[in-house]
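Teaching note: in complex prediction, the entire set of molecules is handled at once rather than each chain in isolation. The prompt given to students was simply: 'Predict the structure of this complex.' The entities are:
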Amino acid sequence: MKVHVDQDRCCGAGQCVLIAPEVFDQRDEDGIVTLLDPSPAAQEHAATREAAAVCPAAAITIDDDE
Amino acid sequence: MRENDLLRLPLPSDNPLEPPADWERLRSRCPVATVELPSGDKATYLTRYDHVKALLADPRFVRPTAEDAGAARIAPEGAGGPAADGSSPLALPDRGEPHLRWRRQVGKYFTAKRMTALRPGMVRTAEGLVDDVVRQGQPADLKAGLGFPLPVYVICDILGVPAADRDRFSHWSDAFLNVSRYTGEQTRAAYDEFAEYMAAHIAVTRTEPGDDLISMVIKESEGEGQGLTDDELLGTAMGLLVAGHETTANMIGKMVAMLLADRTRWERLLADPTLVRTAVDEALRFDANLGFGIRRYLTEDVEVDGELLPSGTTVVCSMPAANRDERVFDDADDMLLSRSPNPHLTFGSGPHSCLGQSLARTELQVTLDVLLRKLPTLRLDVGVDELRRVEGLLVGGLSTVPVRW
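The expected output is the structure of the full assembly:
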């Protein structure tokens, strides 16, 4: 699994950090998403998918082929 | 209902926890409908998930403001004050680059990590309020005892306002939003008092900063040389109070009522408290009594479902109707406490989605954690049919949530 985030779309809602804190974080200076782990381990996959599905800005995409 | 009857908002439903029967029909047969608002103005009403989400997330459009002269008003002239008619005296940028700048300056205070750091304080506040409720005896109104005070206490902490002034904030917040209990004049008087209080509070905070939101924004803006003005700080404080108090207070009441209305839900949470996180989002999705939606004022033509909506149209996006859309949610009319993912639209979507959603989620999770732990025998003291909606138009809620334990 490969995770991508689009910081220009991000609205800083922080949902991803609440759901998958091992994979996502927010920048202190503006609350915008940062990626802690672009290739999360298997046990993080479910939470990562949930974070992508509920992101209010659709700023998280997941590529399963990479 | 006949096809040619004009729909009037709010739509009727059997009880305050049930969705209006019209939603299902509108989603399947008339997803772009014409409705009449309580003001008598007409608007376009969207009920399907995809349509509501796309319009809410469209960066071109925002809520109507006083400048949008042709926009449909919610309440009749004079009632409801700034929050209802868009004539807010606030200096908050609401669109484009300036909105983005404001949002990022304030939004950084509302990161998930910071909200998690506030959590222990929220737990102590909630426990203290529950202790008071128990001390005063049963039956009790959970909304008055816990739902209403908790979020305003948390907002006061975030703004750095002393505990002694919390009750004044409660009153102002109520006056800003309760369109039926207060006249336009009373709302304006409340606003003047609030503005005077906050101006003094901002001045003190400039000389004696703490670690609250106002202090943080002041400190950072000095560094960047392009920070928020006092008017913008005042607008921010009022925005937080208006957006974060009554909404969360009502949601606490409705969430507990929904979980107790079918007590197997409450028992499932008692048996497995790890479900609290998904249960909170499911309560947010399932809430049929959210208010009638968010308005968007079209400043150019838009096509929705093959229908052309001309520039100048006011659109009401019904998030609660969209949240019951079977095209997106399996078993949409069942409250599934473990539902995941749960991409509900209760906090909106896109660049204007709720700034305080991590705060709201944390408050709701804390409320449930504390109630499950301290009052496991909690139950409704009235039948679901006896629950009553709050008077007022902007924020849907229950007037009281009578409970025993």
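Point out the following to students. Helices of chain A lie at 15-19, 45-54. The domain at 2-63 of chain A is CATH 3.30.70.20 (Alpha-Beta Plaits).
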